[in-house]
Q: What sequence folds into this?
């Protein structure tokens, strides 16, 4: 094999490895957090370092699950949940991703306040502020 062919093959291999790592690697250090509110709904959406998933699950357990409502630990969830106090919400959770949708019309205002506080605490947890 000519040296120029070897060099070209080596460069292609290195490029392929770098591109694969960039696409497949978890998005460490990249955090996005948003809250959207309308007349009918309140939504929390977050993408974060998958290494923080246990912290998020632990916090959701602490904040939302009272009296054994449910557990978010070690779980990937895509469900509508009803807590013991009759609060109803949709949650989709997997390592590095969280989506919570809260229907204002189906829940009391007190529960909305609880979810707003949850959003504040999650933002602090995920952005380390």
A:
């Amino acid at each position: 094999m000519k040296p120029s062919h070897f060099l070209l093959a080596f460069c292609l291999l290195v490029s392929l490895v770098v591109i694969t790592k960039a696409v497949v690697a978890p998005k460490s250090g990249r955090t996005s957090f948003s809250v959207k509110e309308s007349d009918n709904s309140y939504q929390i959406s977050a993408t974060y370092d998958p290494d923080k998933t246990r912290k998020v699950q632990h916090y959701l357990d602490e904040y939302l699950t009272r009296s054994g409502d449910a557990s978010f630990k070690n779980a990937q969830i895509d469900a509508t949940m009803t807590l013991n106090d009759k609060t109803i919400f949709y949650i989709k959770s997997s390592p590095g991703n969280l989506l919570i949708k809260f229907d204002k019309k189906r829940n009391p205002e007190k529960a909305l306040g609880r979810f707003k506080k949850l959003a504040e605490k999650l933002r602090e947890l995920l952005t380390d502020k």
Q: What stands out?
A: The beta strands are 32-37, 41-47, 77-82, 88-94, 97-103. Helices lie at 3-24, 53-64, 109-127. The chain is about 40% helix and 25% strand. The two ends are 56 Å apart (CA to CA).
